[in-house]
Design brief:
about 120 residues, 2 domains, alpha+beta
């Protein structure tokens, strides 16, 4: 379906009712406009009212929140001080690092017992 739309002075457009209803767009709804391959594409956008969702403040007592915040603060301090594990890109890299650390501390490998 092709429709001619007039652009008003302030950049506003008036879409015909038929097009709006086909796209599920009502007056006052927000849309996203993108430029793709020489065309302007208008897509309906959903806006989420975050005030309708519960927050962590609603789920914990003030005492529980203080404990959680204290633990998060300690974790932030550990990260800033460099007291954390490095990230590994594979389990092989992780195992190799474990063996390296074991050698450093003089820990010897033991064979797994067959079950």
């Amino acid at each position: 379906m092709t429709t001619i739309v007039k652009i008003h002075r302030k950049g506003q457009m008036t879409l015909p009712t038929r097009l709006r209803s086909l796209a599920g767009i009502a007056e006052g709804d927000l849309v996203q406009a993108t430029y793709q391959r020489g065309k302007i594409v208008i897509t309906p956008t959903l806006v989420i009212d975050r005030s309708k969702f519960p927050t962590a403040d609603d789920e914990y007592t003030p005492e529980q929140r203080r404990i959680i915040d204290a633990r998060l603060d300690k974790a932030d301090q550990d990260i800033k001080a460099g007291r954390m594990s490095k990230a590994f890109s594979s389990h092989e890299e992780f195992i190799a690092d474990l063996h390296k650390a074991a050698k450093k501390y003089g820990i010897k490998k033991t064979k797994r017992s067959a079950k």
